[in-house]
Amino acid sequence: MVAPKGPGRMVRKTYEDGFGTPCLIAVEKDASGSAKEVVLALAKALGATKAGVIETTFTEETETDLFGEQVDLCGGCTELIKGSFDTLVAAGYQPEIAYFEVLHEMKLITDLIQAGGLEYMWKNVSDTAEYGGRTRGPRIITKDTRREMKKILKEIQSEKFAKEWIKECDGGMKKLSKMRKDDAELQIEAVGGKLRKMFKTA
Q1: DSSP bridge pairs for 55
Q2: Same domain as 85, residue 16
Q3: Which domain holds residue 11?
Q4: How many domains does the chain have?
Q5: Under a CB-based contact definition with an 8 Å cutoff, are residues 53 and 43 in contact?
Q6: Are residues 31 and 105 both part of a single domain?
Q7: How far apart are CA 75 and CA 65, in angstroms?
Q8: Which listed site, 60, 63, 118, 197, has its alpha carbon 20 to 30 Å from 3?
Q9: Residue 17: is its pLDDT beyond 80?
Q10: Residues 153, 93: one domain?
């Protein structure tokens, strides 16, 4: 397995710049006795060795990938944004202002974290943001939240999630289709759509 890590657009850009993108390699069964050499050669041909290659296993990559998607990258992040937006709007703040504060500015923070890590981000935001974030963040991601993360990881490791997903697919993805429909009708999506159109015409 050779798996470039990162969104497709970013992978293409770094490849075109002649640098490559970090890559994971894994050998499940080595019938030839030279599988690792072959997969490293493929990684080099992709330009990945210029950026870095990490050896893993199919199990590790699959389980950590699913965990990241469910807990923070996709699941946790979107629920946090929706909860923050709803809290501000319910308190009487303008939906447009709430959108900017809890969703639009998220990219600035994730860009800083990706560029230099968590502490780099803290050093590049205001002291007020740092103090508020460091003291209030643990009240959002609590011990109960961390316990739920462990439960989700166990569901992945035990194949409970895989069986659930297969059942969902075999059943015509009715639950997923409903969630897509419901979320598409959220206020934050309507507000965001209007604001993004303004950016494009500005």
Answers
A1: 25
A2: no
A3: 2-56
A4: 2
A5: yes
A6: no
A7: 13
A8: 118
A9: no
A10: yes
Q: Is 140 in the same domain as 189?
A: yes
CB atoms inside a 10 Å sphere around CB 168: 14
Provide the pLDDT confidence category of residue 2 given band limits of 50, 70 and 90: very low
Tell me 172's DSSP state.
T
**Closest by CA position to 98, among listed 111, 89, 110:** 89
CA atoms of 142 and 80, how far apart (whole Å):
13
Q: Which tokens sit at 40?
A: 């490293």
Rounded Cα distance between 13 and 9, Å, is 6
79 and 155 in a single domain? The answer is: yes
Shared-domain flag, residues 115 and 26: no
134-143 CB contacts, 8 Å cutoff, 24+ apart: 140/80
The answer on 190 and 94 residing in a single domain is yes
Indicate the burial class of 123 (C-beta count within 10 angstroms; 0-12, 13-18, 19 or more): exposed
Q: What is the pLDDT of residues 115-174, one digit of tens each?
A: 999 999 999 999 999 999 999 999 999 999 999 999 999 999 999 999 999 999 999 999
The proportion of the chain whose per-residue pLDDT surpasses 90, expressed as a percent, equals: 82
Please state, in angstroms and as integers, the Cα–Cα distance from residue 48 to each residue in 8, 16, 37, following that order: 14, 12, 14
